[in-house]
Amino acid sequence: MLASKSEKTFGAVITGLLILFSIVALIPLLSVISTSLSSKSAVDMNLVTLWPKQFTFDSWKYIVDRPDLWKSFFLTLSTTLIGTILALLMTALFAYPLSKPEFRWGSVIMMAVVVAMIFKAPIVPYFLTVRGIGLYDNPLVLIVPHILNPFNLIIMRTFFKQFSKELEEAAFLEGCGYFRMLFQFVLPLSKAVLATLALFYGVVLWNQFQHPLFFLQDTNWFPLQIKIRQFITDDSVIMSGAASTAQLNYNERTLRAATVIFAIVPIVVVYPFLQKYFVKGAMIGSVKG
Amino acid sequence: MKSIASHQMKVYWPLYVMAIPGMIFLIVFKFIPLAGAVIAFKDYSVFRGFIDSPWVGFKHFETLLQHPDFLRVFSNTLLLGLFKLTIVFPVPVLLALMINEIRKSALKKGIQTALYIPHFLSWVIVGGILFDFFSLSGMFNIILGWFGAEPVLAMQESAYFRPIYVLASIWKDAGWGTVVYMAAISAIDPQLYESAMIDGASRFRQIRHITFPILLPTVLVLFLLDIGNFLDLGFDQVYNLLTPMTYNVGDILDTYVFRTGIQQGQYSFATAVGLFQSVIGFIMVYTFNKLSNKVSDGGLW
């Protein structure tokens, strides 16, 4: 098919615009990276835009030497890992009976799940309930409220429904029970949906901000996002380990930039490997939604 | 009858056991808080709980409607919600239509990756990036300087809050928002395009007469969902972009509920605010769903 001249221009304009958008999307990130790798004086003299000036790792050295930041980092890493595993287990255990027509409470429960999705409870009674079950100032609040998401539950149930009846019936005749069926046959065949949901749960657990803000007082249990928020908003926290400010090669701004990038690195590292699962999951979700 | 039930239990009991943890979760984290919303009509006391606290009728709603703070917060929320629906919502649709026109798959992948990444950053991080970008020695002010303009601390200026909110929403989520539309586009039968090309339809006309009409039901459904979340602007987002200097334009229902309810402990009053928000959201979805059912058959139910 021969493209006419105007067709070619049309394609070129769209391609050009999209490349421009992609660059614009990355500019704020680039500017923060450059700030974190520039010296204090270069930043103060307004020299830093898209690449580092007077290149230095000093801000980074300071940031990676902060034990409190690493503490939050590892706390968040472990709550994310444990939370994701628990969430998958919980979601699978609930989705499996809901995918079975012989489970009589199924339709009622599904209705309840949809109601829970449409009507969001006001935040204050939610706060009071969660506090009432003892999760106030308790690090478990970083995990427990996130281990079941109605939307993810529906995705998994939809996936389970596709399994052939014949396979299951054969297994049942062999004397295989529902629990073994789920853990030995169904879950090993559900790796794609498990990976996708692990990512959805993982991102929520890693990025969570509202729960720790509402429920945690004890600074020992501050997860990464809260810690970074402190670093961004409170100069006394970020500079608390610094010596006399006069001869330093960093300032609040370069340190804040380094902190922000510090928190992005794990996401950018895992992202390329996981992108296809994210997209697949969003598509499964959209078919349902 | 009884024997059927007992037979059901004998064979299928593992299914019921499996469902128990999930049911407990739903009850504790979804339905008790939902039922707890009754404290909007009570004077909640920590010692008496949701059930035994005394009824006071619409007292808190009356206070709320007369409260000058509430009117300010409510109109801030309405305005930002309106911007989100009118300016932010269409962007992913346009982006998806554009991305679909790119034929080179490596380039397409690269562009998609660049546009998706911001979605996975938390609002704390996005806030941190923006505060850096708009700081006195930050890139925004350096660029202003090239044009000889005076530096501004945009994050601390009321006039800039709404534009920044809108741009940040687009920056973070517009790219990711295309995923759903791309899925819908990829399901379109290629034969439609082939016959359009034989008829001599240009690429622009193909978008207008094939891609866009097929996309429309998806757009409509997502628009309805967005209308339902009209007043739900995202606590994390606003909280992390807000400074005390921008409260007059950026303080919304969510942040107001956090301050009055969680921080100051006015539980019943803040619940009334939250319930007001939920009810308006529900009315909006219901009305617009009726409308869209009338116009086409693309409603939610």
Would you mind describing this structure in some detail?
The complex is a heterodimer of chains A (289) and B (301). Chain A has 289 residues and is mostly helical. Chain A has a domain of 198 residues: MetI-like (MetI-like fold, Orthogonal Bundle), CATH 1.10.3720.10. Chain A is globular and about 75 Å long. Chain A starts with a helix and ends with a helix. The mean pLDDT of chain A is 88. Chain B has 15 helices and no strands. The radius of gyration of chain B is 25 Å and the shape is globular. In chain B, helix 4 crosses helix 9. Chain B has 301 residues and is mainly alpha-helical. Chain B has one domain: MetI-like (MetI-like fold, Orthogonal Bundle), CATH 1.10.3720. The longest helix of chain B is centred in the N-terminal third of the chain and has 35 residues. Chain B starts with a helix and ends in a 6-residue tail after the last helix. The model of chain B has no long low-confidence stretch (mean pLDDT 89). At the A-B interface, helix 1, helix 4, helix 5, helix 6 and helix 9 of A face helix 1, helix 5, helix 6, helix 7 and helix 8 of B.
